[in-house]
Predict the 3D structure of the following.
Amino acid sequence: MTIKIRSHAEGTRRKALVVLARADRKELAEAWRGLPEAPVFEILRPPEFGLVMARGRIGGGGAPFNLGEVTMTRCVVRLETGEVGYGNFMGRDAERAELVARFDALAQNESYREYVDTNLLAPVAARAQRDDEAVRQETAATRVNFFTMVRGEDE
């Protein structure tokens, strides 16, 4: 049994996994149904739920502290050609975890990479960017600017 290592940069794979983790089940299922032919996968680790400790940093860059536990779902699959895909994200959704793992494996395969990039990663990244911008705008609308006024008689 041979395990293939992704031929292009690991940074690219890391970015793809970030986008895949933001994809919802509907987006993943639609992209899976759109495949010209469904590849054969072996499940190495079936979807399972667990808890991980979320860490934060004071002020975004200060001393780390334990924020609390969050639920995670993970799954590991292997494509028949040997690529191993991992599905990890916050939340509980076994089907979504398996689909994320499948698309991670497919993105490592030259035959499927363009399909995954075009039909899943690009649309999900665009939607996530729109969602993030909407949250930024909502947050900016509630921003309060505090300032100090100097009164003449206090001098």
